Amino acid sequence: MAKSVFMGSAEEMRDKLGHGMCLAKWQQVSLHLPTGLTNSCYHPPLHEINAEEVKTNPSALHNTKHKKEQRKIMLKQERPAECSYCWTQEDLGNLSDRHYRSGEPWAQEHFDRIVRSTGDEDEIPSYVEVNFNNACNLKCSYCSPQFSSSWDDEIKRFGAYPTSQPHNAPEHFTGRRRPIPSREHNPYVEAFWEWWPELYPKLKHFRMTGGEPLMDRNTYKVFDYVLAFPKPDLHIDVTSNFSVEQKLFSQYMDYVKRLCETNIEHFMQYVSIDTGIKEHAHYIRYGADYWKIMGRCESFMAYIPYRNSLTFIVTMNNLSILGLQELLESILRLRAIASDTYQRIWFDTPILRQPTWQSLQILPPVYAERLEGVIKWMELNLETEDRPFRGFKDYEIARMRRVLDWMREGSKLDPTYVKLQRADFYRFFNEHDKRRDTNFLKTFPQMKEFWEECRYYSNIVTK
To answer: What is the pTM of this model?
Structure first.
């Protein structure tokens, strides 16, 4: 199989960037406006936006004091500690996300200017991801009230989960960490719309997340603006659980169809789903209906057959391994249906690192062997020149390999730490079953031995 352009660009940028640079620190931003937090991508920890500064300089949503300090570290070819995920992958010999991201056109075109910068400049990013509010109808096991109003409702009713450090405690989400409801004034959302006229002309990718963006009025405000002022080089991206009520979903589909008929470059629909087994999907992303989601994916591709693609976001956690191959089989089936002249079905496999008891690294070695088997099956189903858009791409397998490498690094963790995480795994999901009327062993019978081990540690390990 010939090397893909995507991987070739990443390899080229690996050589150009050197030891510490990442163009995403300048050209990409994730904005979490309900809590006034930001980062460049989803790997570094979120940090605070200065609510006073954005009143006079809305670009400070992106150009925070902290981020400028990190840029200066990179310009000296040093490694910021907050970007440890990429450094770990590179030390394992893998291409990291800084290579892939920096190799994309929206970032790569700024390379010469950025390497000559001081780090103090106010940048207008090319790639913006924004979460306008935390309204969401699902309660994914690894989520929190910051990103789900349904989670917020649950902890207000039942309190924190009884893990070694109380998880999602209501008192944690007060004061500065309290998500600002959409019905209240939000200075960060206000600053965003002040910045929007300056930001929009320079945008190449604009992505809306949540919460659930289909439930947020700002999503449709953006759509209306783009319909009024089309932008030929703009990629619009939306991340959804595809599980909202039918009336709202139909409204959204009509909007997207109009956007794809107008003068934008591309619409990318991201759909969050972590497994290909219905019962597992409902358990992990509580409230999700796997077959309903997949049916809506097929409807999306058929109803809007032009200028768009769909990407599955497969968050790699320790409950997703068992149904991973089934999900990938569904993705290949959709590729055969929807992809003809270009690739319309994609997937990404970000690694979950928090909460730690849902990490792949605390699973026994047999689960790594299962993932190895999935990768070998993927290698038997490669995309080839005479079978384009149907198989797996080189970088998709490379990314899955790095998931496996990271998973196996768990064998190096302190055994006491692993025991604590396994104890918390049981404490969390045992409480999950009580609150949500679920049954772990009925849903994941193959994990009985691991469950019993976690139960044992929950009785003897406290810290």
So the answer is: 0.93
